[in-house]
Every structure is written in C-alpha cells, then in structure tokens.
C-alpha cells in the first residue's frame, strides 16, 4: 500500500540538513520529515534511512494560478517570480553556473491548491490563498507563504513543488528598496525565500541576514539578495556539471494546467481528507514555511 505524509517544517528553527552544522550553516531538506530536537540546528540525511532533497533535472517550469493576488496583476506577479528565479540562477560557484533553469510559463493554471497527480500530468504552481489557510490547508497562521515539495522517499529526488501564498497576511506589494509601508508585505522578499525551498534548501539556523532565514518582518526586503550562506548551499546541492545537460522543463507526467486528475489517477493534496498518492513507491510531501517575525529590517 502506498502512503502520503505531510510534514510541516518548523517555523522558527532550521528544519532539514545535508551536513552537520559545524561544516556549514546552510541546511538542505531531507526525506523522513523529522524535525530538529532541542539544541539541534539541522537534521542530517542518513542514507538509507533518509536522503537530501534535490531536483535531478536541470530545467523545470512554473505557472501562475488563476487564483491570484488581490493587489498585484498576473504580469506583476510573473515579473516578481522571474526576478526571484534570476537571483538564484545567477549564483556562480567558483565562477561557474549551476545550470539550473526555471521557465515561467505564459499559460496560467486552474489550481486552487497545491497538488501532485501520480501517473498523470502536473504543474508547478504559484497560488494565492484567499481563505481557509488554517482551517482547510492546516498551514501556520503566521506564515506568509509555504512551498510544498513532493519527492521520492527512496532517493530524495524532487518530483513536484508548489507555492501557496497567504493573502490573509497581505497586502502583498512590490516595495521600494528601503522597505514597505506599515502593513504591506514585499512579495519579492517572500518569493525569493520560497524559491530556495523550491530548489531543496531548508532554513538556515544561524544567519539572520540570509535569504533562507526562517522568519521576516512584513516590510523587510532583505531576502531579495542572497548571502554567502545561501550561495554556498545552492552550490553544494548543485555543483556545476552535476545535472544532465538535457533541458526539458515539462513536469513529471507532462504539463497539465487544469489540475484535474484523470479517471483512476491517484493524487496527493495536503489538507484534504482522503488525500493519497499512488504509484510504485510512496510519495512524500514536505511543507516549508516563511513566518512573520518582529525584528528590524
């Protein structure tokens, strides 16, 4: 029998790691979903019991949902997403690129919530959630956004990743560099952080200036720009030349913009009763969260 597990990353502590804290501050998501205990910084992958999460393909694609922002147009959100992607794609590892490429599709999808369809078409979606953040999706009420990462628990290969953005924590805007007005949230700050989760990075435990720090003030813009800790993490997960040269951005099973499963297809939808995953092996979803904090920009 196959199984699906939903694991919520700790909102305030680093959650998942590839290497011990003394070797590096950055952390990598892992299979298994164990949270760090008291005094721990990162959870270390220990094959064959757990594996670090990463894409095994160089190119992927993302699409905006028709369930969009109440304050920004689809074009504005797409520009923010492209900017965040460019920030991560611009990382150089000893002068060499990682080779990662994420295409933002012109076509929008009809996904109301994050989901993965095993054995069917999929889409890596960006969805703005108007209501039901806690009651229906069971997300942290403090969270600006979450990224849900579906992966193979037997290898750590990422199969799918969707972002859900909490409109109840908005309004989301594009702030000037010096920060937002009171009550506004900088969408580039949030999306750049979430793209780190998309690539498999977890929260850094001890660098409050890093993009992958777990919390943010609503008005901050710090996370738009990567810090050395973020760069080291991405270069360690995706060293230049490690990914295949072939560039096929199609999601697993092909592109499906309607978010409807075909008859007989198994799906995984966190937060829905009866959500399940099918296929030859279990499918796991990890949920990574950026929460509001009271600290200076």
From TrEMBL:
InterPro entries: MetalloPept_cat_dom_sf, MYXO-CTERM, Pept_M10_metallopeptidase
UniProt KW keywords: Hydrolase, Membrane, Metal-binding, Protease, Signal, Transmembrane, Transmembrane helix, Zinc
GO molecular function, a single term: metalloendopeptidase activity
Spans traversing the lipid bilayer: 271-293
Domain of life: Bacteria
KW Nucleus (keyword) present: no
A single Gene Ontology CC term: extracellular matrix
Stretch forming the signal peptide: 1-25
Domain Peptidase M10 metallopeptidase: 165-238
NCBIfam families: MYXO-CTERM
Protein name as catalogued: Peptidase M10 metallopeptidase domain-containing protein
Source species of the chain: Sandaracinus amylolyticus
């Amino acid at each position: 029998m196959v199984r699906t597990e939903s694991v919520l990353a700790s909102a305030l502590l680093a959650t998942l790691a590839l290497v011990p804290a003394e070797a590096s501050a950055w952390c990598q998501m892992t299979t298994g979903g164990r949270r760090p205990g008291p005094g721990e910084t990162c959870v270390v992958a220990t094959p064959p019991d757990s594996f670090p999460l990463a894409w095994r393909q160089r190119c992927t694609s993302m699409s905006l949902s028709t369930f969009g922002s109440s304050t920004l147009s689809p074009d504005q959100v797409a520009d923010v997403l492209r900017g965040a992607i460019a920030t991560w794609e611009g990382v150089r590892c000893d002068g060499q690129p990682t080779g990662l490429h994420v295409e933002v599709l012109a076509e929008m999808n009809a996904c109301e919530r994050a989901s993965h369809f095993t054995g069917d078409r999929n889409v890596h979606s960006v969805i703005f959630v108007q209501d039901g953040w806690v009651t229906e999706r069971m997300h942290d009420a403090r969270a600006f956004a979450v990224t849900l990462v579906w992966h193979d628990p037997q290898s750590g290969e990422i199969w799918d990743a969707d972002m859900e953005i909490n409109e109840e924590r908005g309004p989301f805007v594009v702030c000037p560099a010096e920060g937002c007005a009171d009550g506004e949230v900088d969408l580039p700050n949030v999306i750049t952080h979430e793209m780190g989760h998309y690539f498999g990075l977890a929260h850094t435990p001890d660098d409050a200036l890093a993009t992958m720090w777990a919390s943010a003030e609503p008005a901050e813009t710090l996370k738009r720009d990567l810090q050395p800790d973020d760069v080291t993490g991405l270069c360690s997960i995706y060293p230049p030349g490690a990914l295949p040269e072939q560039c096929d951005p199609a999601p697993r099973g092909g592109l499906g913009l309607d978010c409807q499963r075909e008859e007989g297809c198994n799906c995984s939808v966190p937060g829905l009763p009866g959500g399940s995953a099918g296929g030859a092996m279990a499918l796991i979803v990890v949920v990574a969260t950026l929460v509001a904090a009271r600290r200076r920009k």
